[in-house]
Amino acid sequence: MTYNPAHHPDAVVRVRDLTKRFGKVTAVDGVTFDIRANTITGLLGRNGAGKTTVMQVLTGQEFATSGDAQVFGESPAENARVLSQISFIKESQRYPDDFQPKHVFESAPWFFENWDSDFAARLVSEFRLPVNRRIKKLSRGQLSAVGVIVGLASRAPLTFFDEPYLGLDAVSRQLFYDRLLEDYAEHPRTIVLSTHLIDEVSQLLEHVLVIDDGKIIIDEEAETLRGSATTVVGMRSAVESFVAGRSILSREGIGGLASVTVGALSADDRAQAARAGLELSPVSLQQLIVRRTHVTEKEFENQS
Amino acid sequence: MTTATPTSATVSSDIRPPQAGNAHPMNRIWNAARLNLVNRWTVYWIPLMILGFIWLVNLAIWWIINASVGGADRTDAMDGTQWSGASFYIFVYMLVIAVQSMNMTFAYALGLSLTRREFYLGSSIAFVLLAFSYGVILTALSYLEEWTNGWGLGGHMFTSVYFGSGPAWQRLFIFGAAMLFFAFIGALSGTIFMRWRTNGLLIAAALTTLLIVGAVALITMTQSWGLVGEWFVTSGPQGVIAWTLLPTVLSGFAGYFILSRATPRG
Question: Is the CB of B113 less than 8 angstroms away from the CB of A12?
Fold first, then answer.
């Protein structure tokens, strides 16, 4: 399967045939995609799929094995012009042993020209982060809050969040989503959000990239993706006659009832389904990705 | 959308990085230096407190000697403190600071989107500043020690034979250059670990050991230990320390190139 993403004139990230190997392990396998300016893109995939590696190459932390990665039109590796525009918040971020959060909030502003210290102070109190405690002694959630606050307050033109909220409770995660959306509306910038909590972020995302086993398997607008599948539920015979000839993503059934997930439906299709007494329900982004990943895997298996 | 954000201002076929006010190369390198010094407790207060404690312990020992030994024996014993290594701790501490910097501060610096080059140059500036400031502190203490006649007890901690008793600039040079030596040896070890992990350190340690054993063998075979001793005596502390500048500078350059392809891994 080859991907030919549309050439976006306003792409701030342009990746072409990027490969990264660690010894014999190929973490990223010839990926090609663009990320448009001033959008929120979800970089989704299972653990170990290659999400972090892609972001590490884009932020100059890892060096590509082959292929081309351009950020703001230049290679990011050891490029201060590019890197000074980037904020990369990752779950595995390490801090000096002797640091307290206050040292982070003192030093981070030196490197981000858009840093908003009032916003940072507000976030510190909202996340109830103890700023005078050794970072080593913070809970997992508090440690994540440090990163989230830096990522938001830095207002970098290109911000990467890599699983930013490990250990954060539901309230704090909601707080993160709320502040992210508010601040994004006021200060548009390009945001890449990598997570495995797909349903939680699905309303935030404008574009979706799904990476699996080092390859991009979905590169679509979130809106298109959300409408790209519908589950049809009803009497088996009615469902079967309705889905005949359509692309079927998954099929379940109990007794005389059937539940079939099909591709995009037109308004006419929906009317027809209603007449046949069928129930239509949208498929969540998470279900969709799980199914699409599955389908793609099967395709790969069939080809090889 | 004509917002103030730099990226949206240039929606052309080729988006260039917007010019950031803060992105001036020298600013970023200087800020990388500050990153190493942001926690004053780690770089100044704690090591100085430990130094103060060691000084107190020494003071107590000198007092015991003064109280329990008399006459020629006392003079003899107090002269012996010229060989005191009590202040060596501070140099080892400097080495640890540099190792930690190349390890954890490096990972943090990359997280703040610094380049490796900016981080290394900035850290080197921080090491020079630390070495200089500790040089000034130790020089001042060495004069204090002289003026108080060894803290009133004839003891030596900052005026030991290793540091000499030359003019101020010479003492500053000895203390500062020794600090720099330990800093860059530490930095080199830190970068070797960052680049090649434990295996790299093991190989580096093995090579260093071989070099030392080789040198010892060479000196012993040619029966030139006398010459070596003579060299130390004629060079004096400032001469010996001047020679350490060579490995210091070499380590500094080596660290730069080793770190330039290193990546912190969690």
Answer: no
How far apart, in whole angstroms, are the C-alpha atoms of residue A81 and residue A78?
9
How far, in Å, CA of A4 to CA of A49, rounded?
21
- CA-to-CA distance for B219 and B229, rounded, in angstroms? 11
Paired residues of A43 in beta bridges = A194, A209
Number of other CB atoms surrounding residue A251 within 10 Å = 13
The one-letter amino acid code at A60 reads G
User: What type of residue sits at position A75?
Assistant: S
Strands A215-221 and A25-36: unpaired
Inter-axis angle of helices A170-186 and A117-126, to 10 degrees?
160
Phi and psi at B2, nearest 5°, equal -110, 75
Kindly report the pTM of this predicted structure: 0.90
Tell me if chain B has a CB within 8 Å of the CB of A59: yes
Token look-up 């929120």 returns A40
Residues of chain A with CATH 3.30.70: 226-303
Evaluate whether B132 touches B43 at the Cβ level (below 8 Å).
no
3-state secondary structure of A246: coil
- Which residues in chain B have Cβ-Cβ distances shorter than 8 Å to A94? 104, 107-108, 111, 264, 266
Does the distance separating the beta carbons of A107 and B23 come in below 8 Å?
A: no
ipTM comes to: 0.89
Measured in residues, chain A has a length of: 304
Q: Which among A56, A106, A189 is the nearest to B5, CB-wise?
A: A189
DSSP string, B235-258: HHHHHHHHHHHHHHHHHHHHHHHH
Longest Cα pair distance anywhere in chain B, in angstroms?
Answer: 90
Give, to the nearest 10 degrees, the angle between helix A140-153 and helix A170-186.
10
By residue count, chain B amounts to 266
Q: Which residue of chain B has the CA closest to A110?
A: B31
Neighbours of A64 (CB within 10 A): 22
Q: What is the mean pLDDT of each run of 10 residues along chain A (304 residues)?
A: 56 96 95 96 90 96 96 96 96 93 96 96 97 95 96 97 92 96 96 91 93 93 88 92 88 89 88 92 86 59 44
Please list every residue in chain A whose beta carbon sits closer than 8 Å to the beta carbon of residue B25: 80
Q: Is the distance from CB of A35 to CB of A205 less than 8 angstroms?
A: no
- Grouping H, G, I as helix, E, B as strand and the rest as coil, residue B228 is helix
Architecture in CATH for domain A11-222: 3-Layer(aba) Sandwich (3.40)
Closest CA to A211 of A29, A89, A61, A16: A29
* Digit-coded pLDDT (tens) for B63-113: 999 899 888 888 888 888 888 888 899 999 999 999 999 999 999 999 999
Q: Which residue of chain A has the CA closest to B20?
A: A113
Domain boundaries, chain B: 26-259
- φ, ψ of residue A4 to 5 degrees: the values are -125, 80
CB contact under 8 A, A94 and B264: yes
Residues of chain A with CATH 3.40.50.300: 11-222
Q: How far apart are CA A163 and CA A144, in angstroms?
A: 9
Q: Domain A226-303 carries which CATH code?
A: 3.30.70
